[in-house]
Amino acid sequence: MSHSFDSSVAANSRISSSNSFSASGDRLENSPSLVEIRDLVFRYQQPDRKSGFELVIDELQIAIGEKVAFVGPSGSGKTTLLSLLAGISLPDSGMVRVGEKQLQQISDRGRRDFRISEIGFVFQQFELIDYLSSLENILLPYRINGSLRLTAPVRDQAIELAKSMGLADKLHRHPNRLSQGEQQRVAICRALINQPRLILADEPTGNLDPANKQLILRILLERLQLNGQTLVVVTHDTGILQSFDRVIDFSDFHGGGPA
Fold first, then answer.
1. pLDDT of 107-148, one tens digit each?
2. For site-directed labelling of 48, which of 23, 40, 54, 189 has its Cα 20 to 30 A away?
3. For the whole model, what pTM was predicted?
4. Per-residue DSSP letters for 146-164?
5. Rounded distance, CA 166 to CA 4, Å?
6. What kind and span of H or E run contains 219?
């Protein structure tokens, strides 16, 4: 599998599939896009109003079933892009489409429900709930979205998924009794449990030791392949890039703010 790297992003923070940002070498041919961004502008300003950055994306498409990794330095806009794809943040202008939904046209509550049912998000800081066990954290999407029904088969699926991630004896532990690597695996299970169409992962292998990293990545990719899901990852881990269909390099993307 070959990869396309293009680090020629202009210093004015502009991404374009037609000129300064071209990473379409391994995009799945003849596959419809799950994600589409056009003419996006997002501006962020620090509270002190002395610093910030502007993210400009002329065009970006990600196909159904495609696995895409974004790499680059902190401050280049990678995590901001994940927040835009999840509808956590909204652009100042332009269009972000995931599936059939244009996120900027949906209410806050609508984006929340859409995110819970259609997007699995692996946060860099895990975002586990302290007073819930590992199993209940994995099942959280079913507790907070009325469109998802928690049944005995779903609970069995959560247990099987946790076991495949090496968490069989950790199901009843709370986050404060888990290592960082174990918390990371619980967060990955939570993102996968309801089989969302799009998985967004911010440094998903960042807290895993080398042996667990390869195991968890293999299990993650196998499950995504089985279900035809799309994966978008932000990572500094160059050792996992060979597993992706497309790698987008942000090394020249000078956002000048948080990643």
1. 999 998 899 889 999 888 889 999 999 999 999 999 887 778
2. 40
3. 0.81
4. TTS---HHHHHHHHHHHHH
5. 33
6. helix 210-227
